[in-house]
Write a structure and sequence with these properties.
Blueprint: E1 11-17, H1 23-29, H2 33-45, E2 50-55, E3 59-65, H3 69-79, H4 84-90, E4 92-95, H5 96-108, H6 120-133, H7 139-157, H8 168-180, E5 187-191, H9 195-206, E6 211-216, H10 219-229, E7 232-235, H11 239-243, E8 248-251, H12 262-270, E9 277-281, E10 298-301, H13 314-319, H14 321-342, H15 345-400, H16 406-414
Parallel strand pairs: 5-6, 5-8, 6-7, 8-9, 9-10
Antiparallel strand pairs: 1-3, 1-4, 2-3
Amino acid sequence: MSVHTATLSDFLIVGISHWYADLDVRERFSLSNDAQQHLLREADALGLGGIMVLSTCNRTELFARSDRAEILAGLLVKYSRGTRSEFEKFGFTKRGEDAVQHFFRVSVGLDAQILGDLQIIKQVKTAYDRAVDHNMLDGVMHRCVQSVFRAHKRSRSETSLGSGAATTAYAAVQAARHELGTLRDKRVVLIGTGKIGKVTCMNLINSGVGNVTLLNRNAIKAERLAERFDVDVAPIQDMPDHLSDADLVIVATGASEPILKVEHLQRVRSQGATQPLVLMDLSVPRNIEPEAGNLPGVRLINMDMLNDRLDETYKERESNIPLVEQIISEEINDFKRWLNEQRVVPTIRALTARLEDIRSAEMDKFTRRHGDDEARHAEQLTRRIVNKILAYSIDHLKEQHEHDDHVARVVQDMFKIELEK
């Protein structure tokens, strides 16, 4: 599809999200970094022009400028552990303006499990950068994403949608408080020091937790974070030892399968640990075996059980939804205007070239008759005249393009312009 003929009807999204699928399904459709790269490479080989892959805890979505929904759905199934029948049951497809609006809503945090989620725009930027690295975005997709970034920025500067701490990590700490009461005297084990792990650690410290132990496969990363927040650090191999006296264990790693298993907990409980234990799994795919929640005295909280209703700023953020919807509408309309203007770009370029050809031919004649000195003055004069004619013509073409292409055709006929097909 040419940039000059692009419309909103060209856009498409296929995906799985927390609105339609529970955690069991979402984790099967999650895409690792390697899987995302392989998917983009095959999409390129199949001739799919613009495509982004957004894979987070609550959704896996392919946003594209394409009409090939079946192929996109097939790629999602191929590179995940989901099945086609599961996608047919739990997945969704949105086309045209619905797809574009959905992408905007997701990016600003209106479609998130945590309203106004502060992390989602970072995940969109990661998806954008990965698509750029694979040369998978054309000019239209670039422009669309820039409009999305502008909508997000406005949603934060013009409304209170970003008030409070609208993140999964904050919701996790709030849920822990709900389960355990005050966290100040609790012993917390945090496994994983990636993006969610870092934010979770910060929220724990801000909540007054004084006893936090970090565990991570990468000892250097764990030590760096531990030094930043003045908490303890231990090797991941020592995990069983730290479970015995923990009140709260939070796991947020990028592992593709559970790292905290029932057998670890059974061993600890059999050795005499009796205090209630809250487990929080902030990972998709899950990092704690689901069966762990069946053990006596153990409460397991996963991503589907988190929400931001406990946050005192929720109602304030909720009241800003209409304002954010208006911002999205304005930015989409601006994007539509830009798309419409692209229809007359070939005519503008051809008209510019034709007028320059006419001017150059006349200047050649003038120079032969009157010499170079006179021609230098005439050169500036003729350029100014042509530029003014072009300015009026371009303004008129852009003003009329939304109604029909009649004016563009008149200009093409008048100046004998033939556009490349």
